[in-house]
Amino acid sequence: MQTESFYLQTPIGRLLVSCKGNKVTGLNLGMDNKKKHPIAATEIKGLRSHFAQTIKNQLNDYFDGSSACFTVDLLMQGTDYQKSVWQCISKIKWGETLTYGDIAEQLNSSARAVGNACRANPVPIIVPCHRVVSKSGIGGFAGQREGKNINVKTWLLEHERSLSL
Predict the structure, then answer these.
(1) Structure confidence by residue, pLDDT tens digits, 97-132
(2) What is the spatial distance between Cα 74 and Cα 25, in angstroms, rounded to a whole number?
(3) Crossing angle of the two packed helices 100-107 and 80-90, in degrees rounded to 10
């Protein structure tokens, strides 16, 4: 199965997109030191597969506000618990949010455990962990509660709320 990675310049910075066959395996926002892995990636002009072009187009559509829908298949590695959290997060609609506690209640779990699963999400934006917030504010993002990561989360939420799709 062919593996391909490429960079995509976006309004929130350069993303590293990784695919295996016809599935997305990773979307690295470059914000979490625990997720940094040396990966050989190409620039957009060097895309080898039709699938890589498809995910590039869907991400561009998300960022330019022309579509809120991702239709690509994912290959997400994680624990059963993490996968259950990601499944709940995937159901949060464009422009809406749930709290860590809301998801914890659905899974008979704790808000902290939900937050840890959000941080481990290998495909943020596609599985929209930015739509999970604290009951008293925006919460964290990619392991931080302030700074660049929170600015990115704020941008993503404002971007979605500003468009009526």
Answers:
(1) 999 999 999 999 999 999 999 999 999 999 999 999
(2) 6
(3) 120
59 closest CA partner among 143, 156, 164, 161: 156
pLDDT per position as a tens digit, 147-163: 888 999 999 999 998 76
Query: Catalytic one among 19, 88, 118, 129?
Result: 129
The whole domain housing 66 covers: 3-73
- Residue 5 CB neighbour total at 10 angstroms: 18
CATH number at residue 151: 1.10.10.10
Cα separation, 103 vs 44, in Å, equals 36
Query: Are both 83 and 144 inside the same structural domain?
Result: yes
Q: Give yes or no: 129 in active site.
A: yes
Residue 10: give its domain's CATH number.
Answer: 3.30.160.70
Please check whether residues 58 and 86 belong to one and the same domain: no
